[in-house]
Specification:
Rossmann fold; alpha/beta; disordered N terminus; two-stranded antiparallel ribbon; 4-stranded parallel beta sheet
Length: 219
């Protein structure tokens, strides 16, 4: 780990988007990548600020979700560097993609992350979402708290929405009770939103007033 950080300091850093020296993802490329149309996370229909639409509110406790960019090109490479190499500059850029898209009028008391299972944590040695969310919390001037644990961690890439819902049902448990706080929960990638939705249900059952999701990218 120390050696990896040392090599990161020595190695030249170039923007994944334009090749500019000095940044993994420069300000210009972050701005260009983060021009996302707000949609309901569940059905994909246009929605003001990314709020969950009326038709989908009966199926989820997630109030809405903001998305930094599409999971493609330089953004995909950024997330892969974060997920598998734990590059410090990569998670700083990812956090900026998240905060760029959170609606200014939303208020939160707590920021938290989607947990990984103990087995996945041992495999990687860290939780990439936790790395991002701590920086997001700092940028927003809010406390970060670990609110959820995870029982299982099935691989969800490439499976149907119905299978994702089946795999994720009951996968999370609360680490502490809540007292009406508004929670921002951060993850790296959203596909169907099944994971964020299940997290939101668990947090609301534990006493949260509302839960909003924020992710780096949509797959």
């Amino acid at each position: 780990m120390v050696f990896g950080r040392f090599m990161e300091l020595l190695a030249p850093v170039n923007c994944l988007g334009c090749g500019l020296d000095g940044a993994v993802f420069c300000t210009t490329c972050i701005g260009a990548a983060s021009k996302m149309r707000p949609v309901c996370f569940r059905c994909g229909q246009p929605s003001f600020e990314g709020k969950t639409c009326e038709a989908c509110l009966g199926y989820t406790q997630l109030a809405g979700a903001s998305v930094g960019a599409f999971y493609e090109g330089s953004v995909k490479e950024l997330i892969l560097r974060l997920k598998f190499y734990r590059l410090r500059l990569a998670h700083e850029a990812a956090a900026r993609l998240v905060t760029e898209q959170i609606p200014a009028g939303l208020k939160f008391e707590i920021v938290t992350s989607v947990p990984v299972s103990a087995g996945r944590y041992r495999e990687r040695g860290y939780n990439q979402s936790e790395l991002i969310v701590k920086l997001v919390a700092r940028q927003l001037g809010l406390p970060y708290l670990s609110l959820l644990g995870r029982l299982t961690s099935a691989h969800q890439m490439g499976v149907s929405r119905a299978m994702r819902l089946q795999q994720i049902a009951g996968a999370f448990f609360v680490l502490r009770r809540l007292r009406g706080e508004r929670v921002l929960i951060v993850d790296d990638v959203i596909t169907t939103g099944a994971t964020l939705s299940e997290c939101a249900s668990t947090l609301v059952a534990a006493g949260a007033e509302s839960v909003w999701g924020a992710v780096v990218a949509r797959h």
